[in-house]
Amino acid sequence: MKNLYVIFLSVIIYLLSFNTVKAYEIRGKVRNVSDSTYVSLSFINNIDEFFQLGHDMVIRKSKVNSDGTFVIKGNELFDDYRFYRLSFAIGENMINYTTGENRNTLTLYLNNSSDITIEFSIDDVYLSDVNIIDDNLFCNRLNDIDITIQTMIGDLFVDDITVVQKEMVRQKASEYVIAYVDTCELPIIKYYLYSYFVGYDLVSDKLTEDDVLELMKDAYPKSIYTKDLIKRSMRYEKQSVWYLWMIIILLFVYSVAVSVLYYRGKNKYNNVSNVLLTIKEREVLKLIYEGKINKEIASELSIEINTVKSHITNLYKKLNIRNRAQAADYYKEKIGY
After folding, report:
1. pTM assigned to the model
2. What are the pLDDT digits (tens) for 281-297?
3. pLDDT in tens, 179-190
4. Helix/strand/coil for 336
5. Where would I find the H helices in the chain?
6. Which domains does the chain have, with CATH numbers?
């Protein structure tokens, strides 16, 4: 009897443990579906991956049924809420990411117990009129944000758009994000909004990475997205320090080079400072400094022109110079006053 009681108790424990296994399920029905439409679920690991899509990010993939219904389910998601992407493409091996009015992805905020129903129409696998039924309403808020912002930034990918027009598009999208942030109290939504700044080079001093990091630290200190922002911040700090050191080194090298050139020019005759010149050579050197030509020097010193040339040759050798300009510089530096 005792053995039966133990067996019964073991069965009850097993059944209870089996029933407590968590599992997620995402279901929906697609209208106007192609015979080769596939739906895939991808994990978004950091802020740089929000607008990327690749086979290495896919967790599960399933073919959409002929009646348009699809189900993706399993128990491999994380227990805490994280960002995932549901995407549709024609062909099993097609993984592409399309934004703007022709987007083909949905951003979801799930954990391993999420139960979500998606109601939308689909035309050529581009999503529109989406309604997401989930337990926390996060996914619908993300979808509303995506529809608005991606419709705005869709113009960035027009072939004939000018640089000025691109800047106007980014400015308009930035203003929308900032306005949404001002009315939103959820840090995780603000983090998602900031991902658009990273993904599409939006700029505003009202929403910086430091601001988002502080919000995430307070609300989700153990989140992988908080840790990712911390790593990014540390990486940028290291880069900033590296750039600062590079600037310091370059300035040091520049100052050394300038100093060397300056002192080389100033002291270029130091190695001949003790050269002994004859009286005539000094006189010739002085007249060269005054700009006299050989004929004028010969006349003033009452000597032959050939003698002047001889003195100049000797000066060049003794002073290690090559021309009259250098001779004049030497006189100015070492003799003149």
Report:
1. 0.63
2. 889 988 999 999 999 99
3. 888 888 889 999
4. coil
5. 2-19, 138-153, 163-183, 187-200, 209-219, 224-266, 279-289, 294-301, 305-319, 324-330
6. 17-136 (2.60.40.1120), 270-335 (1.10.10.10)
